[in-house]
Amino acid sequence: MIALVTIAACVLAVILLGYIIVLKSQMRKACREIDLNKDNAYNRQIMIELIDRDMNELMRSFNSNLEYQKKLKFEAEQSENRLKQSISDIAHDLRTPVTVIKGNLQMMNKSNGLTDEERTHLGVCMDKINMLGTMIDEFYEMSYYESEDVSVSLETVDANEFLAAFLLENESLIREHDIEPQIDMPQYSVFAKADKNMLLRMLSNLLTNALRHGKKTLNIRLKEDDSHVIFEFANETDNAESINTNRIFERTYRGDAARTGGGPGGLGLYIVKLLAEKQGASTFAYTDAGNIIIGIKLFFTS
Q1: CA distance 110 to 103
Q2: pTM of this prediction?
Q3: Is the pLDDT of residue 263 over 60?
Q4: d(CA 284, CA 297)
Q5: More confident residue, 7 or 250
Q6: Which tens digits make up the pLDDT trace of 273-299?
Q7: How far apart are CA 175 and CA 301, in angstroms?
Q8: Rounded distance, CA 243 to CA 256, Å?
Q9: Are 265 and 253 spatial neighbours (Cβ–Cβ below 8 Å)?
Q10: CA nearest 199: which of 293, 283, 143?
Q11: How far apart (Å, rounded) are the C-alpha atoms in residues 162 and 191?
Q12: CB atoms within 10 A of CB 294
């Protein structure tokens, strides 16, 4: 009798052990399925049948949750796309009235019948309409560059030549702000991998940011390290220590110290980051001795 009980216990133990081994094997397979699901952006079901009914119920609940998450993801993407299209449409619709207003203000400014006070007020209106025009352009650019359909054409760019041409083109704009920039670049050519149109837009936005929010100093530097060509725009600004350089490229960041004189809430710098990412490049910002330094890093090509 004791022998039969012992045999039965051994058989039961073997069965239980086998059950545990099979269950553990299936659980490992389930883990692999979950990892595959993660690698495919949670767009696939967990395709496995377990020997344990409760574990199967857990997998079914997991799949049900995946379907719900997929639905939420789709709705969020649709909402984001609608928002981008709305921003683009609104910016496009605003361009015409802003152009008309600006044209009328320019005609009024040419009038000889204005008093000094009226001309001062008119100048303020011109500044504000120009700021609004810039904001509209940046909203339109943002909605365009956020699109996945934007093509990127990377090529080898002579960074020295490109920067020199850019500065020559913008010389009058810089002098309008009564600034004599300090330019530092290597005596030899350095070459970067970039999309020329995107690089031009990034440099324009960095220059606009420096002129709009800086004081009377501007240092523009071109340098290189082991793997990058680096463009830096450095300018003195009030309360530089209050600027959150970790957030300055965010679309919604509004740092008062970085935005003295108003401006479109950082959209220009957000576009710089957006364009850099599309080229596989990066952006950076930091403060040093009352200056804010903002720049981009493009991959070096020999």
Answers
A1: 11
A2: 0.67
A3: no
A4: 8
A5: 250
A6: 999 999 999 999 998 888 889 999 998
A7: 33
A8: 8
A9: yes
A10: 283
A11: 10
A12: 25
Task: List the one residue out of 223, 100, 162 whose CA is nearest residue 108.
Answer: 100
Residue type, 18: G
User: Please, how many CA atoms are within 13 Å of residue 100, restricted to the half-sphere of its CB?
Assistant: 4
In the numeric block, which tokens belong to residue 263?
Answer: 């401006």
Token output for 75: 């709705």
Q: How many CB atoms lie within 10 A of CB 116?
A: 7
In this structure, the strands spanning 191-194 and 228-236 are unpaired
Q: Quick: pLDDT tens for 54-96.
A: 777 777 777 787 778 778 887 877 777 777 777 777 777 778 8
Residue with token string 């990892």: 35
Residue 297, helix vs strand vs coil:
strand
Count H helices, E strands: the chain?
Answer: 7, 7
Token readout for 267 is 């959209």
Q: Which helix (H) or strand (E) holds 96?
A: helix 53-109
Q: Which of 166, 152, 223 is nearest to 192 (CA)?
A: 223
* Rounded Cα distance, 201 and 262, in Å: 21
